[in-house]
Amino acid sequence: MILSCPSCKTRYNVDPAALRGGKSVRCAQCGNKWHQDPPDDLPILLEPEPELDREPDLDSETEPETKPNPETGETVEADPVEVPDVVQSCPANQPQKPVSRLGWVVLAIVVVSILGAGIIFRNSIATAWPPSARLYEALWLSVETPSFGLELRNIKSSQTFDGDIAMLSITGQVVNVSEQARVVPRVRVGLTSEAGREIYHWTFVVPDRELQPGQTTGFSTTLASPPEAAKHLAVTFIEN
After folding, report:
1. 12 with 84: CB under 8 angstroms?
2. Confidence band (pLDDT; 50, 70, 90) for 62?
3. Is 199 exposed, middle or buried (0-12, 13-18, 19+ CB in 10 A)?
4. Domain 150-237 belongs to what topology?
5. Average pLDDT over residues 99-106
6. What are the domain boundaries of the chain?
7. DSSP-assigned beta bridge partners for residue 169
8. 81: Cβ–Cβ under 8 A, 6 or more apart, which residues?
9. How confident is the model at residue 223 (pLDDT cuts 50, 70, 90)?
10. For the residues 40-68, what does the mean pLDDT come to?
11. How far lies 193's CA from each of 126, 189, 190, 220, in Å?
12. Which end of the chain is flanked by fewer CB atoms within 10 Å, N or C?
């Protein structure tokens, strides 16, 4: 069978059986690719042939087609050409493996556990980090910081200067409102920005560590060079 390149017209002798079922071929002369069907009179095989791993190559050892010389009129042999490569068929798409659901289940459990712990232990979290109380309030979750049977009253703050150094002073009272003696825990002062973000904190111990029922003790604490961005303060008890 004579096979001719549609682009450069280079011609090749090809075994028709190699084109059974139609094949994609490439011309070695110009690189053109095209789909070539077998001739209509190709005999039909009675037995199925095994599937070919690749498409057949065009025979390079067959004699190239001859053509007449336009000047002398003599028939001359065409220059040999490189054997064209056969275009390989694209492999069928491999089925993708289903995504395991186990990873999503584990991730969901971890997220739910973290959120649950944040809700269950919100009072302790708010005690250790007072600004988080505003977050819980925004989520409609009530927060109760430990009172230990004590109350903080008459909290006042003032700013003075020691030379060129700003001094922030905080005073207040601790009252035992229970019916039994109480040990006063450490007191925590947190300074927050206008947006409610805590930017500094410190703790101190009141002078009278144990209060009888109804007893009151005063306290005073001072911070040198407080942050300029501090706009609000929060005074709370912290667990020992």
Report:
1. yes
2. very low
3. middle
4. Immunoglobulin-like (2.60.40)
5. 80
6. 1-90, 102-138, 150-237
7. 158, 222
8. 10, 12, 28, 29, 64
9. very high
10. 55
11. 17, 14, 10, 22
12. C
